[in-house]
Design a protein that fits this description.
Helix content: over 70%
Shape: elongated
Largest sheet: none
Structural class: mainly alpha
């Protein structure tokens, strides 16, 4: 491989430091995007939070990430990358799981205002040593490969976080929604229509045409509540998976 043909040599992944920092890069972005994307979606769709309110809820986490990143450089210089990466991944996993435990539709700064910063500190600490570790683990002539590999790992983690966890949320949403619809007595031949309307985001607009009809309004309200409960179950599963991944990453 030459400078004019900078193709990543996969044999570099046999080096534990190089493989480990790329795993950390993947997992941190996987976890970061899971909590940013799905918690914000939950607070605005199921809860009553506005876009501005959600931004305020996430401000402590963003600030924690920045401050932790600024302070971690000296820590890495003193002790090396292993301990900061381990502590960062562990804190991120704990923060995600705690957020999943306390999260409700009415959550705000008083509830998630202390759990999200824990995750933010963890992400901030874990991200700092990744590139430097990759660069130091390979010969200098392969520094471009090392840097691009970690960048790719981050991007793959972000994409996989939204795609994989999105599939989990959608799967749990449908399974739980069917169960909820059975409980409130919606006939099976109407359930597919309801599920399609909920998963495509057209349920509320379709329900407006029945506004003013007491019996149907009651059913719409029950279906809406069932959809919110189902979404909550899916979110729980997604955040639990992301938190568990970060804890496993700490072991790696």
């Amino acid at each position: 491989r030459t400078a004019t043909n900078p193709i990543l040599d996969v044999s570099f992944f046999k080096r534990s430091a190089f493989a480990g920092c790329n795993i950390v890069a993947f997992c941190t972005y996987f976890g970061t995007f899971s909590i940013f994307f799905f918690v914000a979606l939950y607070l605005q769709d199921v809860g009553t939070s506005s876009g501005y309110g959600t931004a305020l809820d996430f401000a402590p986490m963003a600030a924690a990430m920045v401050i932790a990143s600024l302070l971690t450089g000296r820590w890495v210089a003193r002790s090396g990358p292993r301990l900061p990466m381990t502590v960062g991944c562990a804190l991120a996993g704990i923060g995600i799981i705690l957020t999943e435990v306390v999260l409700t539709p009415s959550s705000g700064l008083s509830t998630i205002g202390w759990t999200l910063p824990i995750a933010g500190v963890g992400f901030g600490i874990a991200m700092v040593p990744v590139t430097s570790t990759a660069l130091s683990s390979l010969p200098a002539e392969h520094s471009g490969m090392a840097a691009s590999a970690t960048t790719t790992s981050r991007e793959l983690g972000a994409v996989a976080g939204v795609a994989i966890l999105g599939s989990m949320v959608n799967g749990q949403l449908i399974t739980s929604l069917v169960r909820q619809l059975n409980l409130i007595g919606i006939p099976k031949h109407f359930q597919d229509t309801v599920i399609a309307a909920v998963t495509t985001g057209t349920f509320n607009s379709q329900a407006k045409q029945f506004k003013g009809t007491p019996a149907i309004t009651k059913i719409v309200r029950e279906v809406t509540q069932a959809a919110y409960v189902a979404f909550g179950h899916g979110l729980d599963a997604a955040l639990s998976a992301a938190g568990a991944m970060m804890l496993v990453c700490a072991i790696v």
